[in-house]
Amino acid sequence: MFENDYSSEKSFVLKSLNIISTNGESINIYPQLIELSMFEDIYNSTISGQIALSDSQDFFARIPLSGFEFIAITVGKPGSEREVVFDKIFRIYKMTGGEIKSATTSNQVYSLHFCSEENIISASRRISKSYRGKTTSEIVKDILIKELVVSPQKIQNQNIEPTFGIHDIIIPYMNPFAAIGWLAARTVSASSKSSGANFMFYENTQGYNFKSLETLFQRSSKGKYTYKIKNVDYPDDTSVSEIRDVIKYEFMNNFDVLSGITSGMFSSVLRGVDLVKLKVNDTVMNYENFFNNSVHVENKKAFSFQNEYQDRLKNKIYENYYSVMRMYPTNRGHDTDPTISSKQPSIKQNLVESWMLQRISQINQLNYFKLKMVVPGDTYLTVGDIIEFNLPLVSTKDPGSKNINPYYSGRYLITAIRHIIDVHRYEMVIEATRDCLSVSYPEAQNSDRGIDMMRKQ
User: Fold this and answer.
1) Which of 69, 209, 276, 284 is 20–30 Å from 146 (CA)?
2) CA-CA distances (angstroms) from residue 84 to 77, 87, 208?
3) 354 Cβ neighbours under 8 A, 6+ residues apart
4) Alpha-carbon distance values, 385 to 209, 303, 347, 391, 433 (Å)
């Protein structure tokens, strides 16, 4: 067991780091540790990671590995009422390296790659199964429990969100995780506060989650982080006990209007093809309307990324619907059509008008503004949590006014965490995003035609 200094914000305890061999023997590999990295990602089904080990005694020649072993990792963050212990067992699936680092020594460096065992099971089997009269959340639970045999500790009821609609679904020889991902892209929440189709399936330190982004947005903040500029005084309320320091940060994405247009974030049209009635109906996505009727990460007042700009054709960016067009079969209204329902009484709508364009817009909104920061490690935080980030202004302001950048500060959703642990430190690289601003941009006064006329004056 390694105990770091408890008095520091970076304090932690690596309580166990053991390989469990195929014969059940547990082997402590902490003496060989160089660095341990674990990855949580809201876009990935399972936690994964790798561990770099230094070997000068042919350790793995005496204890051979074949890819069927497990690794047990327990990390704690003591000295705080928020202490949460990370205690997981993963499956080792690959070994890389083995090179000698220097010609004058016999020291070798290996990397062991690991993931949750469910990832191995999912990759090794396929599901061919029909579900009749089930909600999507019921189907997801069935796959996790019966197809992957996930332990009850990793499936908490509060982490599987109820979904809207009763469906008849056939899963045609798909891997379990691929099937859940396919379902997530077509799922609408049962909550009246979630208007989109933004379900995510992911594993974090609490287990497996099947939740909508809008439900995650409504969570309370679990931490406040600020980047403190050198030689700048901060008020007393920014003490370490309340606000934690950011070691370094960068904005991976700020804005990309062209990508927002071509991806369908701002506007798009769905051409629904009814193969029974031989009709075509268009459904449009209007970013402004959709934004105003959605829940966002800012829980008080949220402002959109667009700035009411009108182009030379007198269209706003969210009114150019045919910038992106998608086609998909639809059976809207078939369940209430007397002719069709008499032939197929149990027919269920595929609800494509409720999820396709909405999901595309919301996922792209989430990637429109992305922050990466390095912070002291904390097992209390996990993917799917909400944090607050304050970015101080470089210039000084009048005494008594807030010294933060209003456009970059606010609530963020954690979408990925890389836990980095070695014998001296525990740090996290956090990726966090927001789908809105906490203050509005100044109101646009001109179109590009008006600006062009001003240049000619």
Assistant:
1) 69
2) 7, 9, 17
3) 188, 197
4) 12, 21, 38, 19, 11
Q: Which among 27-36, 76-85, 394-403 has the top mean pLDDT?
A: 27-36
Q: For residue 57, what are its two tokens?
A: 């005694």
| pLDDT score for 305 | 85
Alpha-carbon gap, residue 202 to 53, rounded angstroms: 28
Distance CA 353, CA 231 (A): 54
Written as one letter, the residue type at 14 is: L
Q: What is the dihedral of CA 4, 9, 10, 15, to 10 degrees?
A: 50
Burial of 129 (0-12, 13-18, 19+ CB in 10 A): middle
Sign for the CA dihedral angle at 118, 15, 57, 53 comes to: positive
Give the integer Cα–Cα distance in Å for 43 and 203. 9
**Is 38 buried (19+), middle (13-18) or exposed (0-12) by CB count in 10 A?**
buried
pTM exceeds 0.70 for this model: yes
pLDDT tens profile 238-288: 443 345 789 999 999 888 889 999 999 999 999 999 999 999 999 999 999
Geometric angle at alpha carbon 139, from 136 and 142, rounded to 5°: 155
Instruction: Calculate the dihedral angle through the C-alpha atoms of 169, 174, 178, 184, rounding to the nearest 10 degrees.
Output: 0
Amino acid code (one letter) for 433: T
Q: Model confidence over 403-417: pLDDT tens digits?
A: 788 888 999 999 999
**What's the DSSP call for residue 313?**
T
